[in-house]
Write a structure and sequence with these properties.
With 816 residues, this protein is mainly β. It has five helices and 61 strands.
């Protein structure tokens, strides 16, 4: 039995002083130490520790205590078609389910095995299990631990949404009357295939809590299912293994220990300390003590004051910082610290440095929102160490530190006090240039700064004919920023290299716009160029971003789910993460106009990494977005739209669900919807839409007089117009009217797994189509379309024949 396994078991079962819940064949940590050289011996029967209502460890090599489903009739929410078996790792046995194209409940505890728990008639209990997701190369992703299981159609589930990546979302699912609902989704965390994780779902009254490895992942309130029921497992195309299942009183909490900053710490001698808030509680939920030690105090020292721990970089090297629970010594949290030598100002000088720097050394008109660039004799190579620093020339005060990796940025505050925090690289190499983006808001107007670079930032660099040994104050890269733009400007200019612009970055102009009155119109004119940046707009109406030309003004960034998880329009306090995967995050901003520009998410999907990567996330309820004469290019999830939007004469390109969201009405008029080759599998087709419209009567996604095209290489008949998110809580409202379609669209048109809502389109809801043709205008045979879709008559299509009709509920008729 491995050390990791023993530590997880001890942490799992340490409740009220218990170190083991199953006495049949599983060792406590103490016992494992004493018998490390001896193989574990399986007991002939499962015996639970005192205080535990039910336990299962599969050490007897049998699944006889479980009903392997489907049993007693097919499940209406899915049918499992994989295989289940007992497997072994060394001396440990566990249950494994190898999924085929499986969706549904695959196992539930038998009535006989759960009889003693059922006799309690107590619906307030917890269920814990160790679960190992196993990659079975499918596109779907769920594995759920079930509680209050009544039958295959009624249960609660604490779930991992694993997909094929290390980024997983934690979710609550609910089945009620055969309808499956993803009831709540929480923030993502790293979940790796083929590794064990401890899951715990706690049900007390109408409150459900879900834990991963004894960290509270999220809570959910629901009073639909109140009977105790049983426990089980549900999946959607995800193989998994399960072991060490425990059920007990919901009032007995796990011993908890969590850190608000659990990530590894990269710093340098003399750098800022890291302060960590620690949350520790006992099984009765009362505060618990904890201890913290550094493996090498000569590298990192630790100081503890109550629930606060301060890490201080003492010397160069590596150390492991270990936090240990006071009531459960087996429960530990660790982080690694990598400390570099102290930053030293170099004394080297370089000839004609002004020609090598941007802004040029000595400049009196630098932009506070601009990037810094240093041109080398040959392409520089970043070492992954060191930093670039900006100092105030007036008093030598350190203003900003930018590192080659592990960086983030914080945008805001917006007018309503929100921030967007994102993980993002701030240093890159382009040709022979090292380009560095200062952190947002660090540089002030009309202020003089100088730049310093550590010697170890680059490998074998050469600058102005000399080996690069760093930059210090003596090198002379200093500049003075411009005065602030005049107040209350209604028109702003952004240029990446011109001398007469108001800003170097689009975000700089947006920050200015958000200081104006909410309703005051402002136009941001973007000169041709490539703007590598993320954008954030919130609580400001009537903003127009207008490019100099559609293909020449390009705003882009490589942002994606594994880098910045989920979708967000900000947090109400400064943050360095949580800002979401979209290039442009927009919230509560009415009448945003995007005109004559390209918005691109440059992320290239790779196998095993979650490739969701929006160009824009437009959030709101009554807000309106206009996009015209513009390009929106990404791969998966290109557009995420809510409220109302009008896309006129636009290109939208992507491969999977690249138009999606909860739009009340999103009209694509005279536009091109282009499927591009999937970078993970060129032989695959794609899915254009996934609508999640809140109300059946909402228009949803409407395509009028548009062209449904493909990139060269997308195969014939392999792309569908839409697939469903599979929930009864939203509607699959999509309408194609008088649109031309290339041969990549499959004859069946739509993908019916999972089943759409409504299962059969009506006049006003579901998947509908009218007047579809081939690209050359010839008639398109839609006779093979799926039964869930509806072909409209001319009279039935009338509400979708003009933008005035599509937006009739809000009386909006936007003009080109």
């Amino acid at each position: 039995m491995s050390v990791m396994r023993n530590s997880i078991l001890a942490a799992t079962l340490a409740m009220g002083g218990l170190l083991a819940a199953c006495g049949g064949g599983k060792l406590t940590e103490e016992a494992a130490v004493k018998t490390a050289a001896k193989p574990a011996v399986a007991a002939p029967a499962v015996q639970c520790a005192p205080g535990i209502w039910f336990c299962e460890d599969f050490q007897n090599g049998s699944s006889a205590r479980w009903d392997i489903l489907p049993a007693g009739g097919a499940a209406t929410i899915g049918v499992a078609d994989g295989k289940i078996s007992i497997q072994k790792e060394a001396a440990n046995s566990f249950l494994q389910y190898d999924a085929g194209k499986s969706k549904g409940v695959v196992a539930s505890v038998s009535d006989a095995a759960f009889a003693s728990v059922a006799a309690k008639k107590n619906a307030d209990y917890f269920v814990e299990a160790r679960i190992k997701p196993i990659n079975n190369s499918t596109s779907n992703k769920f594995v759920c631990l079930l509680g209050r299981y009544q039958d295959v159609n009624n249960w609660y589930g604490g779930c991992l949404n694993v997909q094929n990546s290390a980024s997983a979302k934690v979710e609550f699912h609910k089945a009620n009357g055969g309808k499956w609902l993803r009831a709540r989704q929480f923030s993502a965390r790293t979940i790796l295939n083929d590794q064990w994780y401890k899951l715990r779902m706690e049900m007390k009254g109408d409150t459900l809590n879900f834990y991963i490895d004894d960290d509270l992942a999220g809570s959910f309130t629901d009073a639909t299912i109140t009977a105790p029921g049983k426990i089980g497992f549900w999946l959607d195309n995800r193989s998994f293994a399960v072991d060490d299942i425990v059920v007990g009183d919901a009032n007995v909490k796990p011993v908890l220990l969590s850190l608000d900053q659990p990530a590894d710490w990269n710093s340098e001698v003399g750098g800022a300390d890291r302060e960590i808030s620690v949350s520790a509680s006992k099984s009765d939920s009362k505060p618990d003590a904890f201890s913290v030690v550094s493996s090498d105090p000569k590298v990192v020292s630790v100081a503890q004051n109550g629930d606060k721990v301060v890490l201080h970089a003492v010397g160069a090297g590596a150390a492991t910082i270990s936090f240990t629970s006071g009531s459960n010594p087996a429960l530990k949290k660790t982080l690694k610290a990598n400390i570099e030598p102290a930053f030293v100002l170099a004394s080297t000088t370089y000839p004609k440095l002004a020609k090598k720097t941007q802004p040029a050394a000595g400049s009196k008109a630098a932009y506070a929102d601009g990037e810094l660039a240093l041109s080398f004799d040959v392409a520089p190579l970043l070492s992954g160490k060191g930093s670039l620093r900006i100092f105030s020339a007036k008093d030598d005060k350190l203003v900003d530190v930018i590192k080659p990796k592990g960086e983030s940025n914080t945008y805001g505050p917006t007018p309503d006090g929100f921030y967007r925090g994102v993980n993002m690289p701030l240093m890159r190499v382009a040709g022979k240039q090292l380009i560095v983006r200062p952190h947002v808001g660090k540089l002030a107007y009309a202020t003089t700064y100088y730049v310093a670079v550590s010697e170890n930032l680059l490998q074998d660099g050469k600058l102005a004919g000399k080996p690069f040994t760093g930059l210090g104050k003596k090198a002379g890269w200093s500049f003075t920023t411009k005065k602030a733009p005049a107040k209350a400007l209604a028109a702003l200019t952004v240029d990446d290299d011109g001398s007469k612009a108001d800003f170097r970055s689009v975000q700089g102009a947006l920050d200015y716009a958000m200081q104006l009155p909410k309703d005051a119109p402002v136009t941001i004119k973007v000169k041709n160029g490539t703007y590598e940046e993320l954008l954030f707009l919130r609580a400001k109406d009537n903003v127009t971003i207008q490019g100099e030309s559609r293909d020449g003004a390009v705003i882009q960034f490589n942002n994606f789910e594994a880098q910045n998880t989920g979708l967000s329009i900000g947090a109400n306090k400064p943050a360095t993460s949580g800002g979401g995967r979209a290039v442009f995050a927009v919230g509560n901003a009415d009448m945003l106009v995007l005109d004559r520009l390209t918005l691109k998410n440059s992320h290239l999907k790779t196998a095993g990494i979650n490739g969701q990567a929006e160009t824009i996330y437009f959030a709101g309820d009554k807000e309106r977005l206009i996009a015209k004469n513009a390009n929106f290019i990404s791969r998966q999830d290109t557009l995420q739209l809510n409220a109302y939007s009008w896309f006129y004469n636009t290109l939208v390109a992507g491969d999977v669900d690249f138009i999606w969201g909860s739009a009340k009405a999103a009209l694509f008029e005279n536009s091109e919807i282009r499927t591009i080759v999937d970078s993970t599998d060129a032989a695959k087709g794609g899915y254009i839409l996934q609508a999640r419209v809140a109300k059946a009567e909402d228009k949803g996604y409407v395509f009028l007089n548009s062209r449904i095209t493909r990139e060269d290489g997308v195969p014939d008949g392999a792309t569908v117009l839409a697939r469903s998110g599979g929930s009864p809580s939203f509607f699959d409202n999509v309408v194609f009217v008088n649109s031309k379609m290339d041969k990549h669209i499959a004859p069946e048109g739509w993908w019916t797994s999972p089943t759409p809502n409504p299962a059969k389109a009506t006049l006003n809801s579901g998947w509908r189509e009218f007047g579809s043709t081939r690209l050359d205008g010839s008639a398109l045979d839609v006779g093979a379309r799926v039964a869930a879709a509806r072909t409209l008559t001319a009279a039935e299509a009338a509400p979708y024949l003009s933008r005035e009709q599509v937006f009739s509920t809000i009386g909006w008729n936007p003009q080109p």
